[in-house]
Amino acid sequence: MSILDVRDLQTHFFTDAGVVKAVDGVSFSLSAGEVLGLVGESGSGKSVTGFSILRLVDAPGRVVGGQINFKGQDLAKLSDREMRALRGNRIAMIFQDPMMTLNPVLRIETQMVEAVRAHDRVSQKAACDRAIGTLAKVGIPSPAERLTAYPHQFSGGMRQRVAIAIALLNGPDLIVADEPTTALDVTIQSQILAEVQQLARETGTALIWITHDLAVVAGLADKISVMYAGRIVESGPTDAVLTAPGHPYTQGLLGSIPGHGRRGERLTQIPGMAPNMALLPDGCAFAPRCTRVSDTCRSRAPEITAIDPARSLRCFHPSVTMTSIT
Amino acid sequence: MTPILELDAISRRFEKKLDSVERLARRLGADLRETCVNAVDAASFHIQRGEVVGLVGESGCGKSTLGRMVAGLLPVSDGVIRYEGTDITDAKTAAAREKRLSIQMIFQDPMSSLNPRMKVAEIIGEAAVYHGLTTRREVAGYVDELLRKVGLDPAFAQRYPHQMSGGQRQRIGIARALAVQPEFLICDESIAALDVSIQAQVINLFQDLRRDLDLTYLFISHDLGVVEHIADRVVVMYLGRIVEIASTAALFDVPRHPYTQALLDQVPRLGAGRQEFRTVKGEIPSPLNPPTGCHFHPRCPMAGPRCGREVPRTLTTDGHSTACHLHDGGVA
Ligand SMILES: Nc1ncnc2c1ncn2[C@@H]1O[C@H](COP(=O)(O)OP(=O)(O)OP(=O)(O)O)[C@@H](O)[C@H]1O
Ligand SMILES: Nc1ncnc2c1ncn2[C@@H]1O[C@H](COP(=O)(O)OP(=O)(O)OP(=O)(O)O)[C@@H](O)[C@H]1O
Ligand code: SF4
Ligand code: SF4
Ligand SMILES: [Mg+2]
Ligand SMILES: [Mg+2]
């Protein structure tokens, strides 16, 4: 039973330089407790996908098509008030910069109690207890004392954990995490990953983990969707995508990661550079950088095609065999 | 053989300034003062000509400070820096100044280190003309050749920094450093801000330049995967002190210091399958108020009573140096 079902989402920015199709037909679904890794290079549309789900896209951007179904409700049909009631309550977002969530001039206590009572008619005391419990859950030592601190009294990693605690406060069904560990040290990143992993497992919260770091999602996500130029080009179970990537772009990404066992070897380079989103080529958006490009690729855009019930690819010449769905 | 670079117990102390959040809080009445930090505390190591040495450690441990002292961008508080045997700590003599020019630094954020009002041609050519490595008449050709060397079309010479992608700007930063014909490059998180596919291009470029120009590198990064890929030896810092130095193979395969072991345990790896993420207990302590004895002792799973009392000595066996009581008579 899926918690979130995104169908053919389209979010465009209407700029002077033209229409930027930042998200152009993205589909995926998530069940309770499932972790989706949304990966891709800078500018591929990962954050805009996340913002669209929470209805946080501002002008000149607009969701121009598709459906977002959350527990059977079409989010596009909700009023602003209904959406606000959902946000921070059933759906939460964690940003790369914790100060997007935290207010520098308010004590953590004030911020957390407010976040609880905005959605739940409970006493000050009950809200406070919940705040302390949640801070403990994300590994803040002596949470009762820390509650009275201001954000500046925490280190960067602790601030991020407080922001995560705020996201967890009301036990959301879905968390969209937009590169929350990219700016942090490996030791702190690992701490946060351990916490969210446990959370998904124990409380059934579904997670969308946005990152450009495939190694992070390798250890965390159940499934992966790879974005390129506003579209998902490959998706499937994490192990399958990482061990047998089918799309030339996914293969290029994996080849370009330095790591264990390849010391000193030449890394694979994806030729060329990220596309200008206002001037995408006809046909496949990856064609100018693709080693397997053919005339077909330049004249028509490939559709996303299922190769088995769990995996799909958007490519005319993928390197795994397309079998028909049985 | 004389090492190309020798650091002999160099240190750097700072008065700690408040960050923007703290300044705001102070204006609102919080009790916040500026204090003193030992950003780098008696660091010693050497680099041989042609070597790539990686410098790793958590944020704030002093990597950039060390790099900037070596590059001559920051005076040392104590200690001596020698380049090919010549003391360059103060660069007062002409000989020392000339040696200094052989050391160039490439920064993390190419945008902030490139003058936005200058064309690429000027950015790259300026210092080379000033130091007499080319003439005004020949500088255009000199710049073209450097652009080719870093894999860019010479047409880029007529562009401004903002007209280029992140990876292209990073290449301009590299070309500018190469323009004064350095022997020694300090790369400070030079690829951290780049996408993986562009990161791969720049890593490959560093490898090519090393081979073609016989360069020596001090490669600063908190990305252990990148360091493992390109370094011959690795230096690990914790709170201003060097805790371990070893060949890349030894460091990644048989790390000796508990901190290095913890750090390597945390690295997310491709191909490891679903990973149980683990945590090093405790926080990175404040450099303003570092723990006594071994700085790592409050977080160390192996710590004993001696660790809080006594600063560990650095001992070297088989070219592998470690500063930990476990390797020097025990922690009891
Ligand atoms: N306010 C805006 N106006 C115009 N274009 C925008 C705006 N916000 C985003 N875009 C464009 O939408 C595209 C997708 O951006 P998005 O922020 O989703 O990328 P991303 O995948 O999250 O990248 P990153 O890894 O750099 O965060 C980009 O091409 C970006 O330039
Ligand atoms: N100009 C300065 N004034 C005051 N303190 C400084 C200054 N530069 C660095 N420090 C302090 O010195 C310590 C070491 O900083 P440094 O920038 O060298 O760390 P780093 O290892 O490069 O960290 P990062 O990985 O975050 O770049 C930190 O505590 C930092 O706050
Ligand atoms: S459709 Fe063609 S150009 Fe696009 S990724 Fe596949 S092979 Fe490459
Ligand atoms: S000296 Fe003691 S505390 Fe420090 S790393 Fe070694 S065992 Fe751990
Ligand atoms: Mg983003
Ligand atoms: Mg630094």
Per CATH, which architecture of the domain at 5-102 and 182-256 in chain B?
3-Layer(aba) Sandwich
Looking at how many chains there are and whether they match, the oligomeric state comes to heterodimer
**How much of the residues of chain B is beta strand, in percent?**
15-25%
Main sheet: strand order of chain A: 6-7-8-3-9-10-12-11
Gyration radius from CA atoms of chain B, angstroms = 21 Å
Number of helices of chain B: 12
Q: Structural class of chain A, please?
A: alpha/beta
Distance between termini of chain B?
40 Å
The overall average pLDDT of chain A, rounded, is 89
Q: Order of strands side by side in the largest beta sheet of chain B? A: 6-7-8-3-9-10-12-11
Bound molecules: adenosine-5'-triphosphate, iron/sulfur cluster, magnesium ion
Low-confidence stretches of chain B: none
Main pleated sheet of chain B: 8 strands, mixed
Structural class of chain B: alpha/beta
Count of β-strands of chain A = 12
Number of helices of chain A: 11
Q: CATH superfamily membership of the domain at 2-32 and 39-90 and 212-313 in chain A, which one?
A: P-loop containing nucleotide triphosphate hydrolases
